[in-house]
Amino acid sequence: MGRQDVILSTGISDSLKAAVERIVHDRLFVLTDETTLRLCWPLVSQLPCVQGAQMITIAPTDENKTLESLAHVWTALQKGGATRRSLLICLGGGMVTDLGGFAASTFKRGIAYINVPTTLLSMVDAAVGGKTGINFGGLKNEVGVFNPANAVILDAEFLRTLDRENLLSGYAEMLKHGLISSTEHWVELLSFDLDNVDYARLTQLVAQSVKVKERIVEEDPHEHGIRKALNLGHTVGHAFESLALEEHRTVLHGYAVAWGLVCELYLSVVRMGFPRDKFYQTRQFIKEHYGQFPFTCKHYPRLLELMAHDKKNLEAGQVNFTLLADIGDIRINQTASREEIEEMLDFYSSEQ
Ligand code: GLY
Known about the structure:
The chain is an alpha/beta fold. It has 2 domains: 5-161, Rossmann fold (3-Layer(aba) Sandwich); 165-350, Dehydroquinate synthase-like, alpha domain (Up-down Bundle), CATH 1.20.1090. 48% of the residues lie in helices and 15% in strands. The chain has helices at 12-22, 34-39, 67-79, 94-106, 120-126, 164-181, 183-191, 199-219, 234-246, 253-272, 276-290, 300-308, 338-350, and strands spanning 5-8, 28-33, 54-58, 87-92, 112-117, 134-136, 139-143, 151-154, 320-326, 329-335. The strands form 3 sheets. A 6-stranded parallel β-sheet has the order 1-8-5-4-2-3, with helices on both faces. Helix 5 (120-126) packs parallel to helix 8 and helix 6 packs antiparallel against helix 7. The mean pLDDT is 95. The chain binds glycine (GLY). Glycine (GLY) binds next to loops.
């Protein structure tokens, strides 16, 4: 897998121009979704480097990360005369960068693409690291390829367009990066004031966060080993997210990850001796900002089932976790018994 160029932008005009000029291309396309078109495209539309670009717009949100939207992008590229030397800019959140990256990776067996993530979640996670794909057959990210963008542009100006919930959602992945990297970075993250956002400081934290992910992806691009560290909080988080979806109480991905982090850190305390003080501090921060995911023991069988079906599991029916012995001390491929998982859920729900 090639190395992607992650650009910390101090002005979208110069950084996008430089990235577009570096890639020799015949035609330029911009993919975005209806929400991003309204909120973020105005920050880009006047730039000389995108004049003449053909726009492709898809419906927003993860529900539309489908084969139909993908076909719409392929059709627009085809009708717009795209060749193997064309370039696609994916402007939006994780849904746009995932689907756009997959469209670019497969159209004529692969054209160049640039990610311009506009949400915190996509800046620190989805747009970086080369995972592309769509949801299929009721399963998230079921079909896709590993193929990094030629460039990823991180520009903090877009963060000002986000509401508090979406900011918090992305911040959960940053907390995860803190937990899997160093106590120093984790302390910085817990002391950041999310009620009074200092965007310059947030930009520095985003840069650090992306470096954590880049380091891991570079070591293990196809997730055979250490990349599984990035799944911390996600085994339980995905189960909460799926349960919420089934019960029509939608939760943002990062909120589910934050709640999942509390559960999996509890398991880390019990199984790996993760320090209790660091666990309590993280739990307190998450509780204060993200609240709690409400469920009762009647939900346990379904939650266990959802965890058992997670595509991260190595063996059918056995739940795979990434745990920590301390901050930055990662233990991948851990399994837990049914009793341990239920004890974890008991602990979490007794906290409400
Ligand atoms: N979102 C986790 C990863 O990119 O591996």
